[in-house]
Amino acid sequence: MTDGYELPCSPLDQLEGLPYFPRLCDKIRKQDAGTLHPDYHTNLGLGMDLWTCQFLGVEYNDLKAQILAGATDTDALHWAKHHGLTRPEHEKAWFLAYLNTRGFRDDLSERLEQRKKEDPKTDRPEILTFIDYIQADEDRPL
Q: Which of 79, 81, 68 is nearest to 26 (CA)?
């Protein structure tokens, strides 16, 4: 996935213990700069982007506006915490587990298996979750 496009940062990246948030911000910036591969455009604001915004209690487009206005990842997260929901530490731990296990023996298992079969590099038995799938699809270690 080259041709002038850049990969977003890893879904494993965290900010202040919150998983995936740096990737969400990175995808928004790269899409705005025209460096995010079109394959990513369809799901902007959906899937893990949506779940992260729901966890924070903010609308994706409102968060996107903050990021495009120049907020750093930290600034954007602090904005979301101020304008969204306050979550106790145990809910943050739950959300981390939720994102890290999506696709493993849950309602998205079938979809994960379908996605894995689309490319030989992702059709591997050790890919058990969507995080694993994204890592493998982007040629990152599991």
A: 68
